[in-house]
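Regression report. Comparing outputs from two consecutive submissions.

Submission 1:
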Amino acid sequence: MTTGTAPAPRLVANAFTAGKLPRWMPWPILAGSLAVALAAFGLMAAAAEEEFNWIAGTIVGVILFVVVNWVIARLVEGGRQAADRLVTSLVTGAFVLALIPLVWLTLTVVVDGLPTLLDGGFLSNSMRNVVGEGGGALHAIVGTLIITGLAAVISIPIGLMTAIYLVEYGTGKLARGITFLVDVMTGIPSIVAGLATYALFALFFGDGVRSGFAGSVALSILMIPVVVRSSEEIIRLVPNELREASYALGVPKWRTIAKVVLPTSIAGITTGVMLSISRVIGETAPLLIVAGFTASMNYNPFSERMMSLPVFVYTQYTIPGIDPDPYIARAWAGALTLVLIVALLNAVARLVSHFFSPKLGR
């Protein structure tokens, strides 16, 4: 019997892990690419005595990142992993490019609108008897809330009941016709809704009619198809097993919809409603036609003209006085106020979605 030392185990190279770059490697490559591109554009701008174009520098930096990341992965990891990193880099680069206009828009509105918004009189005064500096957008904020609120009161019940009909009851040609009309209404220009509403109100009240309620009707034309489509898709996601369990207990269909389907989908429906409100709250053309504009407060949506924030921004920007600076500043502050209102609405939608969504498990 012979004894000896056992041979040492032989290490076998794994083709899937050998030569693998660290997971954090793309981030320094991205940072370096952006730094090189921005530095190059900064030097060119300084040499030509022009304004620094950081947007073009960011775009070139992202493109450089995609190329450099693929080359390094090709040299270290091989063709298979390089192809995977190339696709990942393209997706990341597309995300960065999509953020550029959002970041630029947000920074521009905040920088140009915040000083006037923080002025104590902007949120508490109207533009009545104001020429030049001073004044505020209180009448426009109140008008926006009233007009949009009435539009929501009109649109939400109609849109929600239409969605319930299409999902729970609709069959045959009528349902297909409603779906077709909703799809057509989704794509109509906003100014067409304003002209149609003006023509309708002019038939009953004569030419030159202007009111906040007419603006609400115009916005509801744009809002209803969004509510219908979003609510329809959310209601379709409710499992049929829940409906069948309710029917098995002898619950009628209308009560099943009210007590099972709607509570289950209330979070998604609320999100869709908030998105539809965000869609119409910034419309200018229909409100400019049917609601008009004024410098005074008006709390009655059924009488006289009513100002809204989009129209306020439009008039301040397009009809400046002898000194345009106060008007432009108020326009930026009005735009920032509108953005904050939309952000607040979306935050409310997230809270409703969080607290009212069905809880899984016990």
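Submission 2:
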Amino acid sequence: MGSKARLAKDIAPKINDLISKNNISTYIEPFVGGANMIEHVKCENRIGSDNNDYLIEMWSKLQQGWKPPEQLTKEQYQQIRDNKNKYSKELVSIAGFCATYNAKWFGGYAGIVKTKIDTYRNYYDESVRNILKQVEKLGDVQFLNVDYTYFSNYKNCLIYCDPPYQGTTQYGTSKDFDYNKFWNWVREMSKENVVLVSEYNAPEDFNIIYEKTLTTTLDKNSRKSDTEKLYIIGEAS
């Protein structure tokens, strides 16, 4: 949910250009989620973090060669959902993000579905195959299970933030997000780093350097159009 896969081809080149122009050696993505952006970023050091420990364990284990199950039935999905402590974190993550509709954390089982044109799609299989392709591009990424504030003392980095969008369905395990605290943190970090934020809206002191309207699928019966924007304080240099 909130996947940047469709925007990566537009945003990643901007990130790479800023990394090159500012001679930056460390790229940080504090809300790495599905890693759809970081896989396209070119930087000497790449750090992807998230406060969802299941997600980070999944990426770490995939880096080490772990292979997810080829199939996951509805019954298995429900067992894992209701008994998370009995299963490995990487398996819980696969169930919670790949066997569910639109990658919403345990948002309802999505396996093989009949489409409107009488064909069938295996959403779990598609999700797992996509993740395995990504892992090939994530070999040197350092994955951390930390909150974004962990990076408060970092300097001379490019930090790309894709936080839970204000006013939309929350994803992951987070239910509360302090937006005022976040924007103040971005302001402070922008003093000695290049900080970019993807959001629909931002405080008035932030400037839009990119925007695009996309149709977002919230669940199998709900679609809406929103304009994704990329923000920065001051001018991109």
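Expected: both submissions complete independently.
Actual: both completed, but the second showed a warning that disappeared on reload.
Relevant detail on submission 2: The chain has two domains: 1-51+146-237, 53-138.
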